Amino acid sequence: MSGEETDLTRRSLLAAAAGAGVAGTAGCSGVQTPSDVAAAASVGGNVGYFRGPAQVDLGASTFVDARSKEQYRAEHVYGARHAPIETLETRQASDDGFVPDAAGMASALESIGVAPDDDVVVYGSSVGSRVSRVVFALEYLGHEGDVFVLNGGYEAWTGRVGVGSRSHGTVDYDPDPQPGLVVTREWLADRVGTFNADGGPGLLDVRPPEAYLGARQADALVASNARHGHLPGAVNVRWTGNIDGRELVEPGTLAQLYFSRAGLTQSGPTVVYGQGNVNPTNTWLVLRALGAEDVRLYEGGFGEWANVDAERRGRFPVETKTSTVIETSGSVGGGDDGGFSCTG
């Protein structure tokens, strides 16, 4: 199917569904209307990036959909462009390790008609890591416009909707890479022994605790890794703890999690890493939203660190004995099958 519908709104579709639900549950309380869902997604306080549907400028914003192609084609915010996630996570090798592929990411944005000065609202099924990778790509490229995330994901949207897909034309996107947003394998190796120590950089491992601990035969272990465990000194806070279903966890709770329980400082620097370069961008984004001044992504991730050549592993040690796991209880909603998704 191609083209876009213009005579439906998300509010009208949800209202019809809600009406059917009310009719079937006459006399019951607790039925949520579309307005309730949208209002619940609003974000208060001095929190960056995250906005509810009522808090975004509909007329002046370019919407970018980070969900799957199938979900986008079925229904999306009217006029939204579909984010080519696979291209926005590309990276390239350097002498110091992997770095983001700025040219490739800029080309991806050009292909969907996102200009450097556009104000962008990114949304997904939730506020998961697919969404945060798009935000990271924009910020790394030096995006000039404002960048926001739709809290509550597409399910909180009550405005005009489109179906199918169509071309939005191309634009020029001249990247201005921000190297201060990333670290490399060599940068980390130079600082082994200083992480999360007095005066040293913060280091967060966002993987499941079983992967962080290198637990034998755990499902969370990645078979392609030559070694298991974590970077010396890293604290484990699983990234899914940032999310409650489709929304950001209450910001005060997150501030306590990171700046009290995990012992991070807002002045930084703090480095976040995962197995690859998508999931850790969620914690990167949340820390920035909470006011952390210097948050950096290890683009190569544990997948790069664990698999260096055998003769060089002394410079890139992996630890299992010393560990700090901060338990969280978050969950990410919005899988294609209506269940949960680890990528949001």
Automatic annotation (TrEMBL):
Pfam families: Rhodanese. The keyword rRNA-binding does not apply. It comes from the Archaea. Keywords: Repeat, Transferase. Residues 57-166, 203-310 form the Rhodanese domain. SMART domains: RHOD (SM00450). Gene3D superfamilies: Rhodanese-like domain. This is Sulfurtransferase. GO terms for molecular function: thiosulfate-cyanide sulfurtransferase activity. The keyword Repeat applies.
